[in-house]
Structure formats: structure tokens, C-alpha cells
Amino acid sequence: MSTLLKIEFVIPEDKADEAGVFIASKVPHGWEETPGDQTRKFTLYLEDHPLGMEMVRAFEAHFPDAEVTWSERESENWAMAWKDFFCPVNCGETFKILPPWLEDDEENGTCHIIIEPKMAFGTGHHPTTSLCLATIGTLAKEGVIEAGQSFLDLGTGSGILGIGLGKLGLTGIGLDIDPQAIVCAVENVEANGVSGSMKTAVGGIDCLESGQAFDLVVANILSGPLIEMARDILAHVRPGGSLILSGILADKQADAVAGAYERLGIGSPERLIDGEWVCLVWRKVGGDDA
After folding, report:
1. Neighbours of 275 (CB within 10 A)
2. Contact, 121 vs 161, CB < 8 A?
3. 0.85 cut: is pTM over it?
4. Which of 40, 89, 159, 183 is the most exposed place for a label (fewest CB within 10 A)?
5. For the chain, where do the domains classified as CATH 3.30.70.120 start and end?
6. Mean per-residue pLDDT over the chain, rounded
7. How many beta carbons lie within 10 A of that of residue 5, not counting itself?
8. pLDDT average, residue stretch 210-222
9. How far apart are CA 265 and CA 225, in angstroms?
């Protein structure tokens, strides 16, 4: 039976942001973060054991005071384990995320997104994902975004955000630099019946054609890349279009990310906060009501 390598890093809270950026640079798919008493635990799973041990050695060298442990886990038990604790997620008033075994076809006023849990990709439980979906639902109710418009989902992961947009009648593309993420996203896109609305591709913002613009760009990634790619991301927002950014810590990162975009002349964003996370929203890029 095949196995997964489970790796756990426990690091002081003041080093957690740096650790998250470091892990993302080595393993671009997702991980779990668990806060402790002045610490943060990072948990990730890899099928490639040599890559995993290389990751352990690199982390130990970069963070010598961290506690690092690893163990093997039977990969075939992963999907079954989800059934013990996966609960539906309500994301604002518009969306509800469910696993296939809890779908009952009764939407009851919400738009259902069916996600098959995977070891490395988002299920909608993280506040940054639910913040983005709730924001998308609000913008749709207000008529800021509407059916027939186009979208870019940058760092699509499991495809949740793009699927939600597809169910609202928008069409667009989900990009991710991790090929495994795109495999996962394709499965979820098909399971939700939005293959005609959402295309996927392996790549980042630089794989888009120059001048290709969207009515909505949403990027739920890390604060560092959001700052570094600010000019490139804005270049693909249609004039008067909307921009949603998340994956940002409210106290430590929001000002820096917002500032990078404000300096490009689009005004200040609306800030929507859930716990320690924030979602930055420009309803009309460059407009007075941004």
C-alpha cells in the first residue's frame, strides 16, 4: 500500500509568517496551520518521500530552533479520515461547501459547491477561502459582478472560488503553479458541472497574454507574491473591474499589501476581516468608490 510522508513543523509565533513563505517556496500546494501557546504548527503531506526529507533538512537548517517531526501514513486512509470531521461550510449568504457524501441536491437558498477533500488542497474551511466566497456573493447581490462577466482565479488550488463564480454565470480561468492543484481543480470543476464556464491551466500571472483583462480578478495566495505581482495583477483587471485579494494577515500584512496597490493609483480597498485574516476588495478598480 502506498504511503504519505506527514511532516510537522512547530515554530515560535513570531516566525510563523516567515515559515509560511519558506514552505510555499518549497512546496507550492497547501498545508494546515494550527495555533498553539505562542507557537504555530505547520502540517503537510507529501507523496514524494525524497522531496519530503529534503524539505525537512532545509527547514531545520533555516529554522534551527524549530521542532520538526515526520511519520508515514497510509494514503488510502486519507479520504476516509475526512468523513469523521468534514462539516459543511457556509460562506456568507450565497455559498455552501459540501463533500460529495453530504450533498442532498437541496440548495435551500444557497449555491452548493461540491469539493472532494484532497490531502493538499483547500476545502473551504480556511477563513481566507470563506472570506473570498462571502465577498463574491455580496458583490453579486449588489450587482457589482454579474452573469456574463469574465474572471481570473489566480492560485486556484482546488478551484473553489472559480467554481463559485462559474455557478453565478461568470466565465474564466483558474491558474495555479502546482500541477497537482490543477488535477484536483479539474476534478472539482467537472463534479460541479461548470466545465463550460471555467478553464484551468498550470502557470502564474505571466502565462496570460499581454492585454488580456478580466471583469474580476481574485487571488487568494500569500502576501509576498501579492506585493511582488501587484503591477502584473492590475494589468489584467479590466478598467472599472473588481479585485479581491486574500491570504493576508490582518495585523501584520494588510497595510503592506494594500499599499502596494494604492501606490499604483487604484485607491484604498475595503477590508473584510475574519479572525486574523483579511480580504482586500476594490469594487471598481480606479474608481472613487474603490
Report:
1. 9
2. no
3. no
4. 183
5. 3-78
6. 84
7. 21
8. 93
9. 19
In single-letter form, the type of residue at position 278 comes to V
Q: What single-letter DSSP state applies at residue 268?
A: P
Which run of H or E residues covers position 174?
strand 171-176
Q: Are strands 214-220 and 270-274 parallel, antiparallel or unpaired?
A: unpaired
Q: DSSP string spanning 177-218?
A: S-HHHHHHHHHHHHHTT-TTTEEEEE--GGGSPTT--EEEEE
Closest CA to 245 of 268, 265, 263, 212: 268
Taking the CA atoms of 223, 224, 225 and 226 in sequence, report the sign of the dihedral they define. Answer: positive
Q: What is the CATH number of domain 3-78?
A: 3.30.70.120
In contact, 157 and 30? CB cutoff 8 Å: yes
Alpha-carbon span 32 to 170, nearest angstrom: 30
Q: What element of type H or E holds 135? A: helix 127-141
Exposure letters 26-60 (e unless 16+ CB within 10 A, then b): ebbbbbeeeeeeebbbbebbbeeeeebeebbeebe
Phi and psi angles of residue 256, each rounded to the nearest 5 degrees, phi first: -65, -45
3-class DSSP assignment, residue 42: strand
- What is the grid cell recorded at 259? 499599499
Domain 125-282 part of CATH 3.40.50.620? no
Q: Could you say which DSSP state residue 28 is in?
A: -
Question: What is the C-alpha to C-alpha distance for residues 3 and 16, in angstroms, rounded to an integer?
Answer: 28
- Rounded Cα distance, 153 and 159, in Å: 8
Q: What is the pLDDT of residues 77-94, one digit of tens each?
A: 555 555 555 666 778 778
Burial degree of 240 (CB within 10 A; 0-12, 13-18, 19+): exposed
Percent of the chain with pLDDT over 70: 82
Query: In this structure, what DSSP letter does residue 258 have?
Result: H
What is the residue whose three cell numbers read 480578478? 217
Find the length of the chain.
290
- Which part of the chain is CATH 3.40.50.150? 125-282
